[in-house]
Amino acid sequence: MYTVNLVPVNMHMIQNTKYTVSLDDIAGVMGDVYDIGKFDISEQTGSFFYDPWQLKSEFLGTAWETIWNSLPGPKGQGRIIILESPSCYTSHADIDNRWHLNLCGDEAYLIDLEKEEMFKTVLDGKWYDMDAGVPHTAMNIGAEIRAQLVVRKLLPKNIINDPQHVRIAGVKGNIRYEFDKHLSPWLNRAANNTKIISNVKVVKQGIEFDIEKGLVPLIPVPQQMELVIL
Predict the structure, then answer these.
(1) pLDDT per position as a tens digit, 173-213
(2) DSSP for 15-73, written as a single string
(3) Cα–Cα distance, 40 to 55 (Å, whole number)
(4) Cα–Cα distance, 171 to 166 (Å, whole number)
């Protein structure tokens, strides 16, 4: 993965890492990618956001296991994500940061919508560290599909001294877009940086979490959603 217009990778949304995968191992899993398409190579062992995920048993002893183990320590859900051409995603952010490994694609980009910077995704065998709290999208305008293995980073189990459990949910309008545009960037920083929320759980049309009671008014609740004190 490299940058467009010589943007330094390690200063922006996408950062280079020391973790690598052999191109032979990537070639060894491409049959699964082309045959199955979008799929999950991992399974939960507990809490979705907080407990380590493990490789599914059918992938043990394969190149998938080598690739999975090339990342350090406990990690979250690992998914193969396919982006057809021509297509792109709606602007969004994510509460958890991600590891990205490009598997194939000839003309695809990850785009930082805050800095208006594009990062071309290439087959180089490198894991990249993505700050998913930055509003972003992905675009494929090439002749081939773009496939990536995306692995979630686990959220930290923050200690909340005076917790208030809240739910933010909505039922009208484009809830997913409003959630991703206004709330997801804040959730990412609140969980990973300022560490003022914990016990995050996705619920129907929304999310629940614990937050320091005095900080509830700081939550940027989207107009089409409601905050409920639980």
Answers:
(1) 888 898 998 899 999 999 999 999 999 999 988 999 999 99
(2) EEEEEE--HHHHHHHHHHHHHH-SEE-EE-SS-TTTSPPEE-GGGTTSHHHHHHTTS-S
(3) 9
(4) 17
3-state secondary structure of 218: helix
What is the set of domains in the chain, with CATH numbers?
Answer: 2-152 (2.60.120.620), 163-229 (3.30.70)
pLDDT in tens, 38-49: 899 999 999 999
Contacts of 2 (CB under 8 A, 6+ apart): 9, 119, 120, 122, 124
DSSP secondary structure letters along 95-124: SS-EEEEEEE-SSEEEEETTTTEEEEE--S
Residue type, 176: R
d(CA 217, CA 230): 15
DSSP code for 129: E
> What's the one-letter identity of residue 104?
C
Instruction: Give which of 33, 15, 34 is closest to 110, Cα–Cα.
Output: 15
Q: Mapping DSSP to helix (H, G, I), strand (E, B) and coil, where does residue 83 land?
A: strand
Q: How crowded is the C-beta side of 46, counted as CA atoms within 13 Å? A: 9
Q: Tell me the HSE value of 58 on the side-chain side, using a 13 A CA sphere.
A: 7
| Preceding omega of 217 cis (within 30 degrees of 0) | no
Task: Please give the model's pTM, rounded to 2 decimal places.
Answer: 0.91
Residue 11 above 70 pLDDT?
A: no
Q: Indicate the pairing of strand 117-121 with strand 39-40.
A: unpaired
